[in-house]
Amino acid sequence: MTDATHADTIDWHSFWTDADESDRADAGPSAHHATDAVVDFLTETGAPDAVADVGCGPGHVGFAVAEAFPEVDVVGYDAAEPVLAENRERARDRHVDVDFERAVLPEFDPDREFDLVFSYFTLCYVREVEDALRAMYDAVAPGGYLVCNYQNRLARAHWQRMADEPEEFLGEDSQFDADRFEDRFSLLLDGENLLSYDRIHDALGTWPQSVWSVIDKPDTRWAWRHHPLVFVPK
Fold this sequence. Notes:
Elements: H1 12-18, H2 21-26, H3 29-33, H4 35-45, E1 50-54, H5 60-68, E2 73-78, H6 81-94, E3 98-102, E4 114-119, H7 129-138, E5 140-149, H8 153-164, H9 166-169, H10 181-184, H11 186-189, H12 197-204, E6 209-210, E7 229-233
Parallel strand pairs: 1-2, 1-4, 2-3, 4-5
Antiparallel strand pairs: 5-7, 6-7
């Protein structure tokens, strides 16, 4: 694995080393938007043998899956060793069987396969986004799924508006630091790593499908048109 941690956007080692309680809460969007969706998706498609969460951050999805399906082998991957160390300690304290290992997209070569490879709000930090998709899809076992969200042209337009109007969108209540916003999301703002159904299909040779075609979309309002949540069967 490379030693860099998304050098084009944010140094996750420094982020997690210096993160306060608010930073930690804001850096786990899957806790608010995707944790229940992943558990519900697995309930509908069948309990897997192994699940990977790539770009796991604080590990919300991994812990939720391990608690819902105790027999499943769950591994969380992240670029930042500080958050991995915190997650390992949390797993010991909670007596939950989840492993945590380091990986830095676009490289992902776990030397094993998973029935579900999941990645949430991570691809926006990766320049070689198609390489990252292929690497994760390669780790999906036959009959399994890659589940991820991605940023499209609508997301880019909204993020650009946030950058142009920081006084409206990036105030004290914002989860993002206004001073770092444009640097953190530079790849998205530049349109370098935007995705679409067609681009995912071209990269993987299989059409993505909406997760909401399998499970009910949550009532909580979220920009799913801007950040689609999809699965790609294998």
